[in-house]
Amino acid sequence: MTEITQTSAYSLTDRLDAAAIASAAPSQAQLMKELRVKARPGWVSRLPSGLGAFVTNPKGMTGVIILLALILFSIFGPMLSDYNPNRRAGGPHVMPSQEHVLGTTRMGKDVFTQLAYGGRVSLSVGFGAGLSAALIGLAIGISAGYFGGRVDEILTFFVNVVLVLPGLPLIIVIATMVETASPWVIGVVLAATGWGWSARTIRTQTLSLRTREFVLSAELMGEKKWRIILVEIFPNMLSFFMSGLVLGTIAAILAEAALEFIGLGDPNAITWGTMLFWAQNNLALQSNAWWEIWPPCIAIMLTGAALVMVNFSVDEITNPQLRASRKIGLIRKFLSSRGRSADVF
Amino acid sequence: MSSDRALIEVRNLTVDYVGDHSVARAVNGIDFDIREGEAFGLAGESGCGKSTVAFALARLTRLPGLVSGGQVRLNGDDVLKFDKARLKVYRWNEVSFVFQSAMNALNPVIPVSEQIMDVIETHEPALGKDGARKRAVDLFELVGIPPSRLDDFPHQFSGGMRQRICIAIALALQPKLIIMDEPTTALDVVVQRDIIEQIVDLKNRLGFSVLFITHDLGLMIEFCDRIGVMYSGELVEVAPAESILTTPQHPYTRALGNSFPPLTGPRQRLEGIAGTPPDLRDLPAGCRFAPRCPHAMEKCRIDAPQLRFYPEHMSQAACHLLN
């Protein structure tokens, strides 16, 4: 350390005693190593900062990679297979083999082919319904919150109606009313009934944002209403919108599979839900044909898990404190190894 | 007023902000003492680490902030090692705080009397409800608010009065040190002076120490016994308030003094300080002020100067020019 020559009237002879010197902080580089803070890779700095934060977030990237793998599998999977998903391709319940990578169903249809074709429908219905529900929720929530008064009253009434209607039974009723509930019909029904929660949270958030000074100043500057909503208010709740989108998509994929699994969908359509329906009908588990039932289960599970991870990462990126709290274990270890109180918050 | 005995000794204090990809060293190994009965000021421009020091002293550093090194000693005990029970005594009984927006910490639906008595009852349960009430009346008189208004709600007071109520709450347990982080910045100049005079008066009567942080160097020179000037997370000069005004040693202190207009005398062009403080994640080698310093020499860009004591001005400064 430094020698500080102290011969002052305010004599402070013990300025830097052994204890103070021993308590010195490690260098920044050492600290980064100890807390496992990794320097930003060079190529990331060329990306816009939001995107940069996302690509370096392990949870988010795991989710995106799984989702991309599933989407690529659905797009290109069918091209890898010579079979028609609707036609018999071999004997009933053939074990996975070179010829049938994931085996065949009781009807002798190729499971791999069905899984890939089913992914196309299940994923597009799920994402489509999730995105539509999030957009409807955003439009209704933000209008109700921003315009207030009469508009709010009427829109909130509809939000409440959608919220109190029990979701799945309603879909069952609607699904039974249309003659064949194709996956697309189910998607439309899910979009039309799934926006309640996202509208409610976005309305609440808008209510608190519209009284903030920056919105008032935008109004006083004479900005147009649509601009205030889209440019001033909306970016402030991007994380709410994203979580609505992600959770809505998970709900839509699960609900679609559930409806088809209980037999309310079109049994001739090929989706992950109908695959499960047929597997159940044909007693696949009882006859030990796990390859008929596991693939669609795992695909649905992976999609849900990947979306949840993307949601976590959006949370972490928009909330720096949450990001730091990932390190809390290492920070506690750092402090207690130096005999300091690890009581951090 | 102030004795030579140190109440709080800050040694080698280092605070880092832990980012995703970097660690920013907001306070880099600073040393200073706050003596008994002394008002010690920390000056410096925005982002130089003043408030970070205040929060570290109070053990209020929040994530992503991390006190990564050094000691804060109170009668020889390291505050950074206090456990929960000891910390509860330390906060408020020994050290209390008034922050810039302290007045917003008052709960709008609870009468202020209850909010003052809360502090007293939590920390001194032996006093009882009546004792706490009596103490609250005394405190109101102390900060110059009629005790008849004790049972009013926060919104019935003006901003200045609310800030004074917070000062009363800070005084409630007669702490040895009050940390004031821009306690008057949100108030108008007249109220500001009023409150500061009251704090000086209370300090002289009750004998507590103050760590005072503000942008307003004039106010600080008037109020404080000694001042530490911070730049980019380091103390560049520690000296009695008078010396800071009349014989500043460090070029940064001089520049800071030249950035404020004198109240009397002819109008003159203010100089300000060209440039901006360095990025804490990417610091220059040598003296951190060198890139903005009009007197920077070759040596300044290579070797970082250390804080040294210069008895002729009673001041400590970190600058190669002085050797």
How many helices of chain A? 16
Class from helix and strand fractions of chain A: mainly alpha
Number of domains of chain A: 1
Mean pLDDT of chain A: 83
Largest sheet of chain B: 8 strands, mixed
**What multimeric state do the chains show?**
heterodimer
* Class from secondary-structure proportions of chain B: alpha/beta
> What is the rounded Rg of chain A?
28 Å
CATH topology name of chain A? MetI-like fold
Strand order of the largest sheet of chain B: 6-7-8-3-9-10-12-11
Distance between the termini of chain A: 31 Å
Mean pLDDT of chain B: 85
What is the straight-line distance between the termini of chain B?
A: 33 Å
In short:
With 345 residues, chain A is mainly alpha-helical. Chain A has helices at residues 18-22, 28-34, 49-55, 58-76, 111-147, 149-164, 167-177, 183-193, 196-210, 213-220, 225-233, 238-261, 272-281, 290-318, 320-325, 328-337. The two termini of chain A are 31 Å apart.
Indicate the topology.
The complex is a heterodimer of chains A (345) and B (323).
Chain A: H1 18-22, H2 28-34, H3 49-55, H4 58-76, H5 111-147, H6 149-164, H7 167-177, H8 183-193, H9 196-210, H10 213-220, H11 225-233, H12 238-261, H13 272-281, H14 290-318, H15 320-325, H16 328-337
Helix pairs in contact in A: 4-5, 4-14, 5-6, 5-8, 5-9, 5-12, 5-13, 5-14, 6-9, 7-8, 8-12, 9-12, 10-11, 12-13, 12-14, 13-14
Chain B: E1 6-18, E2 23-35, E3 39-43, H1 50-57, E4 65-74, E5 77-78, H2 84-94, E6 95-99, H3 112-123, H4 128-142, H5 159-171, E7 177-181, H6 189-206, E8 209-213, H7 217-223, E9 226-231, E10 234-240, H8 241-246, H9 251-258, E11 308-310, E12 315-317
Parallel strand pairs in B: 3-8, 3-9, 6-7, 7-8
Antiparallel strand pairs in B: 1-2, 1-4, 4-5, 9-10, 10-12, 11-12
Helix pairs in contact in B: 3-4, 4-5
